Structures are given as C-alpha cells and as structure tokens.
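Ticket #4471: structure output looks truncated?

Reporter: J.K.
Steps to reproduce: submitted the chain below (152 residues) through the standard prediction queue, then opened the result file.
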Amino acid sequence: MDMRHRINEALKAAMKAKDMERLSTLRLISAAIKDRDIALRGEGRDDGVNDAEVLQILGKMVKQRQESAHAYEEGGRLELAEKELREIKVIEDFLPRQLNDEEVAGAIEEAIAEAGAESIRDMGKVMGLLKAKYAGRMDFGKVGPMVRDRLG
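Returned output as attached by the reporter:
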C-alpha cells in the first residue's frame, strides 16, 4: 500500500474514532502532500509525489515540530511543546524505523565503498547514495558531518 493511501486510511479511521488531535495532524500531512503535488504540476510533473517524496515531506514536518517544541520549551510554553511532540508521534507512525548509530555508520561505510569515495570532494556522491537508499530512515543533518569526518 502506498504512503498516500495509508495516510488517507488513517485519516478515515481517525474521523470514525473522533480522535480530533490525530485527525488534525493527519489533515496537516495530507495538506502538505497536496501542496507539493500542486508545486510539481507547476513544474510540469503531473504524476504527483511518490513515496520517497512523501517520506521527505514527513521528515521535514518532524524536524519543524522538533524545532518548535524546543522553542516552546525555552519559552516556558510546555503545553504547546507537548502538542508538538504528540504531532511528531503521529507523523512518525508513517516513517520507517530510524537506523541506530551502528547501522548509520555501516551505511556510511557501504556508501563510501560503493561510490569509491577517497576525499571530501566525493562527499556529494556519498550523500546522494545515502539519500536514495535511506530516505526517511536517518537524519541527514547529523549524517553529513559524519561523512565529512570520515572522508576528511
């Protein structure tokens, strides 16, 4: 079942269960996907977003909410921070399991070997391979410096 279908099914289930908080987050996810569809149509791509792009959208939404929750905590607005964290849990239901540190290190070594990377100039190739294989399964903001350290 593709991601869009899974999200729509979850949306229907939340409506039936009258789970307003989950429903609200699922509507935000659906709206973000539709916005991206519209943007792609403007670029001449009529097929809409694929599963990999949905994973990117979801990953971006999680990151935004993490930043918001952190800002709310610093500002003493704990109820808003908790709301953001609950939204993250709903979004993460649709993301694949995140790789642990050992798995990330192994994936980096594998990508470096596959790309034949020898120096920092090859970092783009390595990151491209990782993003293609592990979209939504690792935090590329953390992986970038790890690859840089390994190649540097």
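Triage note (M.O.): checked the attachment and the full token line is present. The chain has seven helices and no strands.
Status: closed, working as intended.
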